[in-house]
Amino acid sequence: MATMDPSEKKILLITGAVLSLFIFSILYARGKNNDLPECLPFDKAYLDPKVKKLDEKTYQVFAVAQMWQFQPSEIYIPLGSDVDFFITSKDVVHGFNISEKNVNLTAVYGNINKTTVHFDKPGVYNITCHEYCGVGHQAMQAQVIVNDPSFK
Ligand code: CUA
Rounded to the nearest whole angstrom, what is the distance from the C-alpha of residue 96 to the centroid of ligand 1? Predict the structure, then answer.
């Protein structure tokens, strides 16, 4: 093996250090923030829109976008819930945006995008499509309605 000159060695060391710092920061961010969006393998079952209750404070929403609506279009959950959204599209590329919650995903046929949102304030959260998808784009929306069960 050829001998390395010292400046080459230095560059390799620095590159290695920067790379490991980069990998470490990604792992650290993932560990700290478990609601980073994920991409899951596609399955036809995701094309069936539904809300699934796992327990009192944990829900799964299987959201399906299509021209020009989201299903389910009204999602009722109690205050303090964690909601996993699984998002896909039946046709073209749509957006899936909940601006109050910083959710900004795309709905793509053949892809499942997942994110988890904690709802700690009661109210109505609008889901809008922010990806131009044709004449009905502007009207394409749905709502998450967060109820406070202690407030009747
Ligand atoms: Cu769907 Cu724009």
Answer: 8
